[in-house]
Amino acid sequence: MTLRTTVDVTAFGADPGGTRDSAEAVAGALRAACAVTGPVTVRFPPGRYHLYPERAERRDLYVSNTVGADRRHLSKTIALLVENARDLVVDGRGAALVLHGAQTAFAAIDSADIRFEGFSFDYVSPRVVDATVAGAGTDGGAAWRELSLPPDTRFRIDGTSVTWLGEPSPADGRPYWSGTDAMEYTQVHDPVGRRTWRDRNPLFDEVAAVRELPDRRLRLDYRFADAPGDAGLVYQMRTTVRDHPGAFVGGSERVEVRDVSAHYLHGFGLVGQMSRDLTVRDVRFRADPATGRTSAGFADFINLSSMAGHVRIADCVFDGPHDDPVNVHGTYLVVADRVADDIVTLAYRHPETAGFPAFRSGDTVEFTARATLDTAAGVVACVTAVDGPHDRDDAQDRRLMSVTLDRPLPPDVTPEHWVAENVTATASVSIVGNHFVNVPTRGVLVTTRRPVVVEGNLFDGVSMAGVYVSADAREWYESGPVAELTVRDNTFLRPSAPAVLIEPTNTVADPARPVHRNIDISGNVFVDAQVPVVRARSVGGLSVTGNHLTGAGAEAFTESDLVATEGCSEVVVEGTTSGTRRP
User: Fold this and answer.
1) Among 27, 194, 218, 353, fewest CB within 10 Å belongs to which?
2) Which of 157, 61, 69, 77 is nearest to 110 (CA)?
3) How far apart are CA 269 and CA 325, in angstroms?
4) How many CA atoms lie within 13 A of 340 on its CB side?
5) pLDDT at 485 over 80
6) Are 159 and 211 in contact (CB under 8 A)?
7) What is the band of 557 on the pLDDT scale with cuts at 50, 70, 90?
8) Across the strands, what pairs with 568?
9) φ, ψ for residue 27 (rounded to 5)?
10) Which residues, including other chains, have CB under 8 Å from residue 413's CB and lie 6 or more apart?
11) Is the pLDDT of residue 390 over 70?
12) Global confidence as pTM
């Protein structure tokens, strides 16, 4: 039996007392551990570790759904970097990691059999401002609001405007970030109603005066007379550049993240990219109440792009993202040119996705017409060579690649009208036993042709569809078709209508040529739902059976009200019950 080596971060100078920057020491401990031959554990003794970006590891990375080919944000700062390692565990032992500035919290790159466990992490003065309307009214015929801010919020009043400031860097004293007034994005959180939604921001409309009050409060006086009616709401404001993934798994296999408290994810979420077999279990994506913040993520919580093997997301809490909690998808690349019968130029088309390799030699690629997205009429080939972007170096154009195939393509595979998907880089998925709350968007997005199970989850007040299936070759270019999806034994509490949405972007919705197939929605409970509960487009084989509706108006709905379809075939809707108790 091979003995496991233990690497203690304090032996490299890390400070569990939280008085010194531990970034350089932690990086050194991880480098030493990655060089060990055989099983190794990197151990954090209990304590509080401050990690500043100035002495952290840096890598040039192109990451899906972030900043695309923008080289201004190519270099990523990574607090905990596991690279070229095998059989390595990062054991937090309950440690609290305090991150400063813009950083990726942890990453596994070109590694296998990696586990991150037993720690929490948060950011000081992150690039989001959660402003609570502590009071509102009128005074002398003019409206006013009083805003309560989290304790680590820094700002400067410039006349009738507010400049938000990040924490000052110890290197030069300059703030890590800044923004003005409402910044570029706002969502609104109702802590009493436990709902969050996207909306415009009225806080800085027609401001006549701004003054600072004690206890991190701001008073805003306005040039209009009507009293604001939003007392108690929280305006969650931020910038929009996704310069880092919050965490990253790239070119790796058999990675697990478990028993972790992720109090905030900077830039984007946990991104899995061109990797295989990922487990995320018992992770609490939720802001620490002690910080006064309610935002726990800059965008998504988990975004998995072109993953293979199996993905399991279980027993997690997803509370307070600024975008989708879970999104599992591939990438549609547009056929931009035909160089030869067996060589095509493929292009990334969404500005936030480019630069990383979409194919490797030996991968199976499927070409599909954008109008129909009908895989039954698609063309399948094997990749024999790729000339194009690699995610950790530079090239002339990060949006294009040349792909050589093992066979000639038919002449009807024409530029701009067809897209390509990497079939090899698709995963089976289990999303089980999770809790989704305070979500401004969808709960779970999933588009993969391997078997998918969404089971035993609680979707509480999700503002859009709890489960969303697309296949998008028009806007986000997130592929692909679903071939076997089971949504069962979930509870949709106060859902939007629909609670389950299947909506590919094909422009031809022919029941004989469906995009998605074999979708089963059964045994779910819908509380205080609106109809339709399910809206489906272009599905062959849709079964909605044995579901239960309860709450306001449930008994008034007929079974025909529950499901709306377009371009679907083999649809079965039966066995629906309603009432206060399930039979």
Assistant:
1) 194
2) 61
3) 9
4) 9
5) yes
6) no
7) confident
8) none
9) -60, -40
10) 335, 338, 344, 367, 379
11) no
12) 0.97
Write out the two tokens for 274.
Answer: 């061109």
Mean pLDDT is lowest, of 283-287, 423-427, 577-581, for 577-581
Cβ-contact 197, 235 below 8 angstroms: no
Q: Which amino acid is at 257?
A: V
The DSSP line for 390-453 is -TTS--S-TTEEEEEESSPPPTT--TTTEEEEESTT-EEEEEES-EEES-SS-SEEE--SS-EE
Task: Report the 10 Å Cβ neighbour count for 580.
Answer: 8
Q: Using CA of residue 420, residue 425, residue 428, residue 431, what is the dihedral sign? A: negative
Predicted local confidence at residue 579, as pLDDT: 84
Per-residue pLDDT, 555: 83
**What token pair was written down for 555?**
């008994």
User: What phi, psi does 386 have (nearest 5°)?
Assistant: -135, 130
Instruction: Count how many Cα atoms sit within 13 Å of the Cα of residue 239 in the half-sphere of its side chain.
Output: 18
Q: How far is CA 98 from CA 53, 121, 238, 376, in A?
A: 11, 6, 20, 51
Residue type, 24: E
* CA Rg value for the chain: 25
| 582 has a pLDDT exceeding 80 | no
The tokens of 495 are what? 């859902």
| Tens digit of each residue's pLDDT (9 = 90 or more) over 366-382 | 999 999 999 988 999 99
| pLDDT at residue 431 in the model | 98
Q: Are strands 458-460 and 435-437 parallel, antiparallel or unpaired?
A: parallel
| Amino acid type, 334 | V
| d(C-alpha 102, C-alpha 6), whole Å | 29
DSSP labels, 125-161: S-SEEEEEEEEEEEETTEEEEEEE--TT-EEEEETTE
- Give the distance, in angstroms, between the CA of residue 536 and the centroid of all CA atoms in the same chain: 24
Tokens of 243: 């310069």
The answer on pLDDT for 334 being more than 90 is yes
Strands 247-250 and 161-165: unpaired
Mean predicted confidence (pLDDT) in 237-249: 97
User: Minimal CA–CA distance to 493: which of 452, 446, 552?
Assistant: 552
Residue 398: band (very low, low, confident or very high) from pLDDT cuts 50, 70, 90: confident
Residues 6+ apart with CB under 8 A from 331: 64, 305, 306, 348, 353, 358, 421, 422, 477, 478, 479
pLDDT digits (tens, 9 = 90+) for 176-195: 999 999 999 999 999 999 99
Structure-block tokens of residue 420:
């390509």
